Amino acid sequence: MNSIKDARFIRQGVDMGTIRPVFKKVVWLDKKVNKATLFCSALGYYEAYFNNQRVGKFIFAPGWTSYGVRIQYQEYDVTNMLEECNTLDIALGNGRRYHGNPHEHYESITDREDALIAALLVEYADGTTAFYPTDDSWKCSKSNILESHVYNGETVDFNANTDEEFPVRVLEDISTELLIPQEGEEVREMATLSAVELITTPKGEKVIDFGQNLTGYVEWVVPAVKGKEYRLRHAEILDKDGNFYTDNLRSAVNEIKVISDGNEHTYKPHFSYQGFRYIRLENFDDDEINLDNFKALVVFSDMKRTGYFACGDDLIQQLYENIVWGQRGNFLDIPTDCNQRDERLGWTGDAQAFARTASINYRTTKFFKKWMKDLAADQRPNGAVTDVVPDLHDWWSDGSSAWADAAVIVPYWVYRTYGDTEIIENQFESMKKWILYMESKGSVRGLYDTHECHFGDWLSLDAGDEATGGFTDKNLIGSAYLVYSNRLFIEMGKAIGKDMSYFEELYEISLKEYRNKYINSGLPEHETQTANVLAIYFDLTDDINREGAKLVKDIEECGHLKTGFVGTPYLLHTLTKIGRTDIAYKLLFKKDFPSWLFPVTRGATTMWERWDGMKVDGSFATPEMNSFNHYAYGSVGDWLYTTVAGIDSDEKEPGYKHIIFRPLPTKALGYAKARILAENGEIISSWEYTGNGDECKFSFTIPNGSHATLYLDDEEYEFESGTYNTVFDYAGI
Ligand code: BGC
Question: What's the pTM value of the predicted model, to 2 decimals?
């Protein structure tokens, strides 16, 4: 049977400037049909219409992969859409990285031609088939999309002449062997938010507030005034005077322009998305503004929601909601650092920091399996992992520790959360290459301390405002991650029956070398909060109490956290590990700068990139790097699940086959409850102070097929599946 690989990539045969083309085919059917299937892919984005109806719900299809190695195609059953005469119209957008990226760093990959590939397969009732692949028999026309760009927005003219047909050009040089079936989750419109309020800013701007920082676009009714151009700009935040603020978007214009043809149209962008909470209406008369005419459509990868957390403190609850919104905003086919400025890239460091929390909130198996295959596809021959995946080829470095360790850490949390060993099989060679690369870059075997570029403890607070890389020694971080990633690799390798003895030996050596060089050296850059966190959390130290005391002293002396992207995910876990959950709670409850709750007190509805995104005086950090939707610090979410509510999965029986309940209640929170929809079913842990002294009600639910151990007040209890309620006097933390 024919497949999409028998079709050819095509593009418009005439120069259309920036106007987006629509490719067309008319297919007459004169026999009874059993089934009709449309296959489609593109270098760029496509949007397919069959008999004027949108095919499928996938936004930004065919998805973003390492295009030079693998390009997904989609398969749609269109049997129910058939008529006698069928028209197929497929619009082609610029897409990610195939065309039109404004960021100066990425120019060299913006000049590739975009192209479409598709095929309609008709299976007749009489057993015969007909196949209509893209070839030179297809036609194309201009769409009404005059310009479209992921970062810059879209311009649509409803007056445009879209009738004239032009020939297409077949691109024989693009191999269809790159095509692979859809692997990831489809990006879809997942929610609709109404406009909350129309604001007139001090500058006189008309601004709509949707009440939530989000990723997606606005669907709106374009007023019917022929020839008039209406414009929307997008922003995440208002400045301290209440004016619309876009400086932090850098070169991303995020502007939608629509020219009316005198008829009322409901419009939403086709090939562009924005990160925003506010829109500014430009060129609207006051009587043309009706809040009901504007809806925000929230767009992200259609993953199953699996984690829920609730507690008795409104600010911490809002922090949790912000963490989940951070994931919604940045799990868009690939895990992106941010959703608004001219970046929105698959930064590996951010993804590994957030992978554990993300995998509890939502089922990430398909999402991460696809992305990890791209990581492996782009991995350098020497084993170094690129900073962003899919790679952009002209980025300036690779192999940065913590970032590149996504190669191991992301599969680990998928494995640990779902007990899924397929991702280990898929990634085994890639993980191994990464560990061996680190091993090859040591001043002695076991250290990763001669690689030139590390991002370091990114955006930590211990190196002053300008020093984004933090104060912690970057070679210390590199060597610490060699030990840690190798340990996870060994655990995963054993889970699929591999001989890991070489790596076990490397582990022993690297631990010894680490202790020699970095523990007790007395150098200040070896004694930061992050250095001590890594020493304890990664089991690098032979004296957890000593490093623990240093960590506690540092926090108590300055009164706050200083950690960046490297230390933050492990900070509260580390304090719990040394028996100082009281300090962890103090950091969690802290409302003034710097803390997790500071942004919440300033009205944040997503996680900020920086602790000081907004300063205490209400001014902003440098617009050069100041996203208000960046999930890395949302990695505190896994501590809420595992320690506040107290649900974890035992590494020896991953996927919550053996559940570890270890809640650490505090009266300050009143109650906490987490619900996780694991492979075996629903897991619940909750506790609530009754108001009667130390009396605390606990409840635990264990699904069939799992068993649990509860650790409470130095006691250990074993449970089989079922629900268990108990009341216990527990003074709390
Ligand atoms: C991104 C980060 C990323 C970093 C690399 C930034 O521009 O937004 O989140 O990890 O670069 O250090």
Answer: 0.97
